[in-house]
Amino acid sequence: MPLQRRLPKRGFKSLSPATYQVVNVGELNRCGGDQSITPQILAERGLVRKASLPVKILGAGILTQALEVQAQAFSLTATEKIRQAGGKAIILS
After folding, report:
1. Any domain includes 2
2. In 50-93, which ranges are continuous DSSP H helix?
3. Is residue 6 part of a domain?
4. Would the N or C end of the chain have less CB density within 10 A of its end CB?
5. 81 lies in a domain?
6. Which secondary structure element, helix H or strand E, spans residue 25, and what is its range?
7. pTM of the model
């Protein structure tokens, strides 16, 4: 039997997986009156550990303020909730 049929089949595993610090939309209300939310502000408020690591905003919770949120990644529901509240979702590179 050929070698490729004898070996077990395994899925693809990335050598450098992307790991994000996760923040929910509902937690952005704790940032107070800041109109522009950046990873540095999230680190100062204790929502993420380090401002240098990538941040992803997820859609759990309700946003009550119009905020301009800057992060490396957004979920679709988070983007919709930010826009419905009158804010902007800006993707950082």
Report:
1. no
2. 76-84
3. no
4. C
5. yes
6. none
7. 0.81
